[in-house]
Amino acid sequence: MHRPLEDYALIGDQQTAALVSRAGSVDWLCLPRFDSAACFASLVGGHDNGHWRLAPKGAGDCTRRSYRPGTLILDTEWDTDEGSVRVTDLMPQRDRAPDLVRVVEGLRGRVTMRGTLRLRFDYGSIVPWMRRADGHRVAVAGPDSMWLRSEPPVRTWGKDFATHSEFTVEEGETVAFVLTWHPSHEPRPDLIDPLESLRSSEQAWQEWSARCRYQGPHRDAVLRSLLTLKALTFEPTGGIVAAPTTSLPEELGGVRNWDYRYCWLRDSTLTLGALVSAGYLDEAEAWRRWLLRAVAGDPADLQIMYGLSGERRLPETELPWLAGYARSTPVRAGNDAVHQLQLDVYGEVIDSLALARRAGMPSEPHAWRLQLALIEFLRTAWREPDQGLWEVRGPRRHFVHSKVMAWVAADRIVTALEEDAGLAGDLDAIRQLRDDIHRDVLARGFDPERNTFTQFYGSTELDASLLLIPRVGFLPPDDPRVVGTVEAICDELCENGLVRRYSAEATGVDGLPGREGTFLVCSFWLADALHLTGRTKEARELFEQLVATGNDVGLLAEEYEPVSRRMLGNFPQAFSHIGLVGTAYTLFGTG
Question: Are residues 345 and 299 in contact, defined by beta-carbon separation less than 8 angstroms?
Fold first, then answer.
């Protein structure tokens, strides 16, 4: 049986991340990067696919847990008949090698601890060779090597292809474990001081958090969302992964299981907006630089997602030895959606760069030439069908959101040319393009009988992405067509107050069987749209409901099943946390 996703907390070093359960088990970790093969994969398999549990002997779930304020350092505590103990988990900012640090501290009495380290490389498929060296347990298999040590030394033994330990801690005593990865052909990296790493990491995270400008309601939730976005940032390049996991299902037992350990252009404008609003301009500039590097090249080859450093090839494969989370198969590595045509990403890129200009970021000399190349491609390509924002694996269609974002691309270029006469560009032609797209969407993407925009041309179905129409400025919020669309989505796509992306089982538009849960970022978009259309009280009530879908440490998944109250989809999800930050600013506007 797999634990509910809400049982997990996130730790990381801004190059990769681990998920730690309430039972003190690290059940997911990819090394050395977010997109590397996992060495702990029990989250999408079973215990034999790798995990590391450290907890009181015979204990179950913890008594309490929390992040240290303003940090990504996790404290997990157990109260037992013997006494109380705390395990502190973190991944310090790396110098060269990634380290996972687990510090056990006696709080009361004398507690016996048990540890089980079951390393499995290549997503749980490879059992490494274990040996002892220089006071370490060393695991080696092919290109991977892991070194485990403790301070003070703790006796370990091997059994059932795992490394076990048992020791006691009394009040005031501390035992620290360090697990370090490095390429097996290289010498062991320098040892870190685990307690000094804890102190310096806590200080660094708290200094970063102190820069947050948001001072409105639910500040803790906003800050936790920003910390999560920081944790999902690949620090060497500035790219932000959609989630640190793969194949956590959108439907329990279903096939909607995708790899989200990559960087999506669809998130770009909202990501940039969240970072700029909260005062994190360095991170916003790093994201913009990543964006410009990733999308450079032939505009016809623009992809919807890229790797952490802008890689373009993300081949999708299945991992058949993994049973899947809650028997949801297949488990996938890579994502074939990289090959899809999604016209909305052109609008996202140009809108992001327009936002960067408005925020006063230093100009990049080649950025404007890139935007002109993108808009030139759109002059004819906008009339083509595509796979749309949600990466449907059914046939291409004329999705309304894609056309709206093509309009956004033209609109932002027109605005820039009108504001800066020194910029090159054919203003009249691009203004005409903007007007042509606008007329086409109003004529073919709107259902006058139901007074709502539709998912795609000729469709009667709805799509939550239509909620962005007033936000991007395609129509003003008080336009009756916008008001009607918001009302229709409330009536047809809402479930227990939260929003589904679209009615997948009714139309088969995405080419997949089954259904999915409500989509959290879409629910934040609804809160934004309710506020913009004058329904602020309802918007704030929805925001309260959405914040409450987070788990006990403030993390949000991609989706939420409101009846069973289960998180679904990859976790934690950057898009959901971006939505929380953006809606907080929309509703309360404090910084």
Answer: no
What distances in angstroms separate CA 361 from CA 174, 182, 407, 512, one per listed residue?
46, 37, 24, 42
DSSP letter for 544, please.
H
Per-residue pLDDT of 283-332, as tens digits, reads: 999 999 999 999 988 888 899 999 999 999 999 999 999 999 999 999 99
Residue 339 DSSP code: G
Question: Where are any strands of DSSP class E within 276-363?
Answer: 305-306, 317-318, 332-333
Paired sense of beta strands 156-159 and 144-151, if any: unpaired
pLDDT at 487: 98
| pLDDT tens digits along 472-517 | 999 999 999 999 999 999 999 999 999 999 885 655 676 677 778 8
Question: What angle do helix axes 268-278 and 574-588 make, rounded to 10 degrees?
Answer: 50
Bridge partners for 533 per DSSP: none
Instruction: Give me the chain's average pLDDT, please.
Output: 94
From CA 307, how far away is CA 267, in angstroms rounded?
14
Q: Which residues contact 224 (CB under 8 A, 6 or more apart)?
A: 67, 550, 553, 554, 555
Give the distance between the most distant pair of CA atoms in the chain. 78
E strand or H helix at 364, and its extent?
none
Per-state percent for the chain, helix, strand, coil, to nearest 5: 35, 25, 40
| Half-sphere CA count of 471, side-chain side, radius 13 A | 26
C-alpha span between 214 and 569 (Å, rounded): 28
Torsion, Cα 284 286 289 293, to 10 degrees, reads -130
Report which residue type is found at 587: L
Q: Phi-psi bin for 122: left (phi > 0), alpha (psi -120 to 50), beta?
A: left
* Residue labelled with tokens 């990865």: 181
Model pTM?
A: 0.96
- Backbone CA torsion sign across 504, 505, 510, 516: positive
Res 365 pLDDT > 80:
no
Choose among 565, 522, 567, 511: nearest CA to 255: 511
For residue 67, what are the contacts with CB-CB under 8 A and spacing of at least 6? 9, 73, 74, 75, 224, 227, 553, 554
Q: What is the DSSP letter of 84?
A: E
63 to 24, 76, 77, 193: CA distances (angstroms): 11, 8, 6, 28
Tell me 160's DSSP state.
T
Rounded distance between C-alpha atoms, residue 104 and residue 152, angstroms: 11
Contact 567/4 with Cβ under 8 angstroms?
Answer: yes
Contact of 357 with 79, CB cutoff 8 Å: no
Structure tokens at 192: 């870190």
